[in-house]
Amino acid sequence: MKTKFTILLSFILLFLTACNSNEATPDDKNESAETVTYESENGPIEIPKHPKRIVALSYAPNIHSLGVDMVGVDKWSKENPLFSEALADVETVSEEDIESVLALEPDLIIAGTHMKNLEELEKIAPTVAFTWGKLDYLEQQIEIGKIVGKEDEAKEWAADFEKKAAKVGEQVKEKHGEDLSVTMYETNGKNFYLFGEAWGRGTEIIYQAMNLTMPENVQKEVSEQGYAEISQEVIPDYAGDFMILSRYEDTDLSFMKDDVWKSIPAVQNKQVIEIDTAASSYSDPTTLDYLLDIFQEELTK
């Protein structure tokens, strides 16, 4: 009797083992093992077709804007007020701390070509590195979409945003004239900068998508590096009809009490738009939509 029970128990265990074996290979696990070839700046790379554990040392806001989860992001993205809450539970990593990346067991790493230890990162997981500014803001988002399996969504956003921003640009020109000029400044209270058409802070919106005019002398100053440092005394020399001032919340703005600042027509006409540098540095969909709303309100009111 005992022998029959033992044989019956063995059959039951074999049956359950077979069932568990079938359940251990669902479609999602098969999908996670699939790879595709991505044509990166440095040649073809085999990356997961459906990455599950992404470490973003760069472009975390672009990835988040596509609704894709990450297991690790850089500290700058986590400190950005537009993303700090959403990324609060994501681990902070750095390209200089290889162990912090290795510990997360990523299946895909997204980085910048300027970063240290790229060769070491490539040993951990497939690593796609972009050169900042090599692609325009729309192309960049589409490329991010390709590597995280969201190309269609990225293309849809790019088309919609371009159309929406162009419409706002037309509204602004109807109100202020075709030749309306805008200057983009940034300050920490002591140093002052001019920015060109592709340097974050919404420059892509103002000068590319909305097609507003950059003063000629500003264009000349930023033509080489994309930005230029200037002294406080010459701020009025570069001021357009509207001025956009990027600064942190705790920036010392005492310079606004000086006669140099007060003499600027845009200041006198209350045509200065202040934006938070901490929330404006990137050129991802979330940041651009946020800034477009500000620009539309301030330039058309």
From TrEMBL:
Ranges where the Fe/B12 periplasmic-binding domain occurs: 53-301
Gene Ontology biological-process entries: iron coordination entity transport
Pfam families: Peripla_BP_2 (PF01497)
ATP-binding is among the record's keywords: no
Compartment(s) where it occurs, according to its Swiss-Prot or TrEMBL record: Cell envelope
Annotated InterPro entries: ABC_transptr_periplasmic_BD (IPR002491), Bact_iron-sidero_bind (IPR051313)
GO cellular component annotations of the record: outer membrane-bounded periplasmic space
Residue numbers spanned by region Disordered: 24-43
Keywords from the UniProt entry: Signal, Transport
Region forming the signal peptide: 1-24
Gene3D superfamilies for the chain: Nitrogenase molybdenum iron protein domain
Family (UniProt): Belongs to the bacterial solute-binding protein 8 family.
Protein name, as recorded: Iron(3+)-hydroxamate-binding protein FhuD
Organism for this UniProt entry: Jeotgalicoccus meleagridis
Protein encoded by which gene: fhuD
